[in-house]
Amino acid sequence: MSSISGERTGAAPPTGGYPAIRMLIGGEWIDAPGAPVIDPATGASIGTVPCATSAHLESAAAAAARGFAIWRRVAPAERARIMLRAVQLVRERVDAIARDITLEQGKPLAQSRAEVLRGCDLIEWDATEARRLYGRVIPAEPGMRHTVLREPVGVVAAFTPWNFPMSSPARKIGGALAAGCAIILKASEETPAGAMHLAQAFCDAGLPAGALNLVFGDPAAISGFLIPHPVVSLVTFTGSTAVGKQLAGLAGTHMKPVIMELGGHAPVIVCDDADAQVAAAAGVKAKLNNGGQVCVAPTRFIVHKAVYDDFVQAYMHIGRAVRQGSGLDPDSDIGPVANSRRLQGLQRLTEDALRRGARLLCGGAPTPGPGFHFPFTVLADVPTDALAMREEPFGPLSLITRVDGLDDAIALANSLPYGLAGYAFTGSARNARVLSDELEVGNLAINHFVSAVSETPFGGVKDSGYGREGGTEGLECYTHAKSISHLTV
Ligand code: NAD
């Protein structure tokens, strides 16, 4: 397979400019006219992302069908070997990839690096788990044998967002390839380099042509083409609930199963017995991740009145020390937000909350100058009718609100249509059990902020979607169960 560009491959050192972005179709790197890629720290164009035509998409579908025919028959141990080789290459290239992610997405370099390594971890787990995609033998009467096989579902059409240019594609590529599927990935046009580097590593690791295809372009045109396409057997999307509902509807019309990782508005319940300082320090640290542009970002801090003032003081104190700037500056704790949509959205939600009586503790308005910079912003005493308490801020905006007891906290946490991640801080086994039983979320973390690791399933309930990524549950989403009933003659 050819390399991404003559001027720069994934193995290039972390110097020089942003790479030339290409699509990968049937093992060939393809260029095409497209749109600019913007550095959110400056607002300047740093490159161009190609835009797929219908002919490109038809080629990708045909290539994926050929790739699937080959890849599904590759032994799981060999699949794992190729995938682990790709992971090794990405790890060797981490500094160059991280720099490109910071340029296109804005997050601090250390976070980009951590994201790349996390993507490696996700693929590594899927690769090794591929060897354990066991079926079942079900006890039956003499002469009869019922077996269940886990078969790859086929060609996957995958759509990933701009906030995690590497780890979101890694989740989908890892799950699909481990299960024996082929995949056509439409990664984000705003942050295309992460997915391209990942695809390059798979090419270099010896993945058969067509098993992984990467396209960019008009998101609606591509989903409108690929989802109904007869070659595609499964749709997986990470992004907003509004778009997820559209795509799930289209997939339903064509009887295609879907995995939907959609929006969230994570509650953080701080109980009366919690250490408010510890919870506040951990909360700010978690909110720094990707500048809050994460579907599992802690957002609604629902704090018991007994520890409310301590929590607010501690959160404000630590939050005021957060440094916002270019992701290339090692002193920045958070980078710019990814685009002007986020800047406008954060400003609108902050102004609305202040109008309704919230108290501004730090930040509050976009930083003047080029790029899309919004400071770490903390609001206390946020009334429940503030728009930000219902709409996902998807940025560095923390909302703190007071409650009288655990039941009120749970009711408030569950009051939204979202149900992705939830967090709680308590030293009480009873509180932990009640929270575990009553919170309407797909992932709950108690006394910390890591909502999912490679080994555990990640996904939502309610408007946050369905299907899982990660864990055995995630891998099984890329398979179907074939039941074979055999009467021995
Ligand atoms: P958006 O709704 O415009 O787009 C969300 C994502 O969907 C983008 O990656 C976009 O390219 C893609 N998309 C849009 N229309 C599409 C279509 N018809 N077919 C296929 N893909 C399509 O929102 P946005 O302004 O880019 O992001 C803001 C919101 O998106 C956030 O508030 C958040 O809810 C959500 N989001 C969620 C995640 C997540 O991890 N679940 C990631 C990114 C964005």
Core attributes:
489 residues; alpha/beta; Aldehyde Dehydrogenase, Chain A, domain 1; Aldehyde Dehydrogenase, Chain A, domain 2; 2 domains; 21% strand; disordered N terminus; binds nicotinamide-adenine-dinucleotide; NAD-dependent succinate-semialdehyde dehydrogenase; Ald_DH/histidinol_DH; Ald_DH_CS_CYS; succinate-semialdehyde dehydrogenase (NAD+) activity
Overview of the molecule:
- By secondary structure, the chain is of the alpha/beta class.
- The chain has two domains: 261 residues, 3-Layer(aba) Sandwich (Aldehyde Dehydrogenase, Chain A, domain 1); 189 residues, Aldehyde Dehydrogenase, Chain A, domain 2 (3-Layer(aba) Sandwich).
- The protein has 14 helices and 20 strands.
- Strands 14-15-16-13-12-17-18 form a seven-stranded mixed β-sheet, sandwiched between helices.
- The termini are far apart.
- It comes from Bordetella genomosp. 11.
What is the straight-line distance between the termini?
50 Å
Q: Regarding quaternary structure, how should these chains be classified? A: single chain
* The CATH fourth-level homologous superfamily of the largest domain: Aldehyde Dehydrogenase, Chain A, domain 1
Q: Which blocks of ≥5 consecutive residues have pLDDT under 50?
A: 1-15
Shape: globular
Helical element count?
Answer: 14
Helix content: 25-40%
Strand count, sense and barrel status of the largest sheet are: 7 strands, mixed
CATH fold description of the largest domain? Aldehyde Dehydrogenase, Chain A, domain 1
Strand order of the largest sheet: 14-15-16-13-12-17-18
Beta strands, count: 20
